[in-house]
Amino acid sequence: MAGIEPGLFVISCPNTLNDSSWQKKKGKVGKMVKTGLGDELKKVEALLKKVDVVALDPSSIPSKSVEELKVRVDAAKKEYQASVVPLQKQLKAVRDKAEEAVKKLKKMPLGGDAAKAAAQIAKDADVYSVTCKSLDLEGAVKKVMADIQKKNELAAKHLKASLAKFAQGAKTYLGDPTKESWETNIKQQGRSVSNSVAQLQNYRVKFWTDFEKFKGFDAGTLGFEDSDFSDKGVKLVKAAIGQVKDIAAFKG
């Protein structure tokens, strides 16, 4: 359904739908009439604070794959039910209470301004309740799908070159297994292969469980000390070479 972007949902709430605004606009005459509208507006404010906009918007966090996107879409639907549906119900309560307030305030001498403010709240609550039903989840999904497709195309385009660069870097490193050589010949080359394998679905399914163990070839994440590059580093690179050969031979 077309509508507002999930990430803009909370900030799109009209400024009239809070108790502070109502207290200022209803004036002295309005303060003389007990309407209960302020209490209902406070409930709206409380419910708005509970909305997790990140969870509500599947495009708020990049997804590498359709599988990751599905998880985020499911999370968005759960968040909608948990936080937006109760808010929509409360907005209808505000609308009804505001309409009651208008009738009471119109009966008061000089109550016109307060009645006008209450009428605006009723209108804004009604409009925003419709907004609750108009989150553009499909638009967010399309946006992410386009991004995934772009990433897939780039990963496929660069995979062959990344594998070749890693093979050359690994050969150089094994001839000089030092921290400096790792940084120059392994880290970025290995990360490039990791990124492509993780991105491309067929490669990810077949190879990622094992290739992920290389931790993106980040020495810090691997827990390498300076003395580890000549033993642990060599073993890891040799293991990676075997997997890289399998990846290169794979017809994904």
Q: What does it look like?
A:
With 252 residues, this protein is mainly alpha-helical. Helix content is 73%, strand content 0%. It has twelve helices and no strands.
Radius of gyration: 29 Å
Q: Could you list the spans in which at least 5 consecutive residues all have pLDDT below 50?
A: none
- The number of helical elements comes to 12
Proportion of beta-strand residues:
under 5%
Structural class: mainly alpha
Helix content: over 70%
Largest sheet: none
Distance between the termini: 36 Å
Overall, the morphology is elongated
**Strand elements, count:** 0
| Element pattern in H and E | HHHHHHHHHHHH
**Mean pLDDT figure:** 94
Q: Main attributes?
A:
0% strand; 252 residues; mainly alpha
Secondary structure: elements and pairs:
Layout: H1 19-25, H2 27-31, H3 37-50, H4 53-56, H5 66-106, H6 112-132, H7 137-175, H8 179-185, H9 187-199, H10 201-211, H11 219-222, H12 232-249
Concise overview:
This protein is mainly α. 73% of the residues lie in helices and 0% in strands.
